[in-house]
Design brief:
Blueprint lengths: L8 H16 L12 H10 L5 H14 L4 H7 L5 H14 L1 H13 L4 H10 L24
């Protein structure tokens, strides 16, 4: 038995199309979209398989979702897939203030990919929060002799 609240790429596309039709009929351009945490996670995962046009639509939808999407967008920054990473970064930039505090907190915990956070802080006009690269300390062994 399949759950009734599953989200598929086709249902996401349908929701995007319905949103565009509503906007064309005079609905507000700043409409908000409601989607569960799992739906947001699924959207972000689907970016790995999305073409450029669909990735752009997903980005727009993630921005419309707003604050609810921020934690998953931050997780997406650490993806090995470049499309996932770049769309998550752009959505966070477009979200602006809503994403600032969670990004600052995540950057403090980051041990890898600090350059991504620095890029985002620069784009958001928050250079004071830029994180320094982790310093690698190499130990050198010095032979001591009693000559």
């Amino acid at each position: 038995m399949t759950p009734t609240n599953t989200v598929s790429l086709d249902s996401i596309r349908l929701r995007l199309i319905e949103g565009k039709q509503a906007q064309a009929q005079g609905a507000s351009n700043e409409s908000t979209v409601t989607l569960s945490k799992e739906g947001v996670s699924y959207l972000i995962k689907s970016l790995a398989y999305a073409d450029t046009a669909f990735a752009s639509e997903i980005e727009h939808l993630l921005v419309q979702i707003g604050e609810l999407a921020v934690p998953q967008l931050i997780k997406g920054l650490l993806s090995t897939n470049m499309t996932v990473r770049s769309v998550c970064a752009m959505a966070l930039i477009r979200l602006g203030r809503v994403a600032e505090k969670p990004l600052i907190e995540a950057s403090m915990r980051a041990t890898t990919s600090r350059w991504i956070f620095n890029f985002l802080f620069e784009e958001l006009g928050l250079p004071q929060y830029m994180v320094q690269p982790v310093q690698v300390v190499q130990s050198s062994s010095v032979a001591l002799s009693n000559a």
